[in-house]
Amino acid sequence: MIFESPLVLIALVAVPLLIVLYVLRERRRVDFAARFTTPGLLPNLVDARPGWRRHLPIAVFLVALAAMIVGVARPRASVNVKREQATVMIALDSSLSMSSRDVRPSRLAAAQHAARVFVDKLPKKFRVGVIGFSGRAYVAVPPTDERPLVYRALNSLHAGQGTALGDAVALAVKLAQQERDSGKIPPTSVLVISDGAQMSGRTTPEVAALQARNQHIPVYTAVIGTQDGVVTVPLPGGFQAQLRVPPDPATLQRVAQASGGKFFDTLTDSRLKQIYENLGSRLGTRKETRQIGDFFAGGSAAFMLFGGALSALWFRRVP
Predict the structure, then answer these.
(1) SS3 for 96?
(2) Which helix (H) or strand (E) holds 104?
(3) DSSP classification of residue 238
């Protein structure tokens, strides 16, 4: 505990001084009464002596005085406060295979819709960042609590060549580290929505998953697409060809398992809900310094009222 005005605590010296004065007064009162009465006759004159009850109101008053002085010194204490902030990084595959229409209206559009619904269900104090990845991974929007920015970032993703899955996970981990370096230290999770296979990039999915695990960042992966997926690619001479693009859930499973996350074979709300439920369980507490002078002031007032009530109840004058 620390005090903003520690010099005020010098006034606590008054408490033992008042105790000494009270003891001296009690002794003088007894000596004074002995001059005019015979101690052996007191039981015939007084039904009962108040005993310890006579000292309790003054004791309560002294406790109240000490609490008041401490409160005026404006104490501050470090308390454990429940953390309410967390970060979710959404890495959305925007590779060419995501333009397949085996999932209506397309894999990419379905993934964007699922991500928007997921963001809608997140607690408002959770920060969300969006990473897009095709031939390379890039930050569509850094972690923010401004939901309109997140929705615009999701809608801005367009299909391109390549699938840098490992780079996307590694970039998400890097952004989470930057959040922690800023002092916020929120628990972080990554959600990857993809149809699977790594086709480009510098970091393999397995290496990126281990990086995430070392930073205690679970990666949740959700696969999208069916075995009937095809895309149309242009050929020289104005020709076109259809290319089969079945999903690769095995890669996503390995990433989730290696990082400590979970793999989802569907994009249903009930499955994705597990991600922010897991975040909620990891929130824990954080140390925060708070002003607690009001507690001492309130306690002082309560003791004052209690002492006054005892005095009025036990020692009221009968007319």
Answers:
(1) helix
(2) none
(3) G
Q: Look at residues 84, 121, 49 and name the one whose alpha carbon lies nearest to residue 285.
A: 84
How far CA 17 is from CA of 22, 23, 62, 125, in Å, comes to 9, 10, 11, 53
DSSP-based three-state secondary structure for 82? strand
CA angle (217, 222, 227) in 5-degree steps: 150
Task: Name which of 286, 250, 228, 261 is nearest 84 in CA terms.
Answer: 286
DSSP state of 268: -
Say which residue the tokens 């999903």 belong to: 247
**Cα 86 to Cα 248: distance, rounded to the nearest angstrom:** 30
Give the dihedral sign, CA 219/222/227/229: negative
Query: In 3D, which of 255, 195, 198, 200 has the Cα closest to residue 227?
Result: 195
Q: Which residues in the chain show pLDDT less than 50?
A: 45, 318-319
Residues 83/285, Cβ–Cβ less than 8 Å: yes
Residue pair 108/115 in contact by the 8 Å Cβ criterion: no
Give the pLDDT confidence of 158-199 residue by residue, as tens digits: 888 888 999 999 999 998 877 665 555 568 889 999 998 788
CA 36/CA 32 separation, integer angstroms: 7
Q: What is the pLDDT of residues 122-149, one digit of tens each?
A: 888 888 999 999 999 999 999 998 999 9
- How many Cα atoms are found within 13 Å in the side-chain-facing hemisphere of 196? 18
Check: pTM over 0.90? Answer yes or no.
no
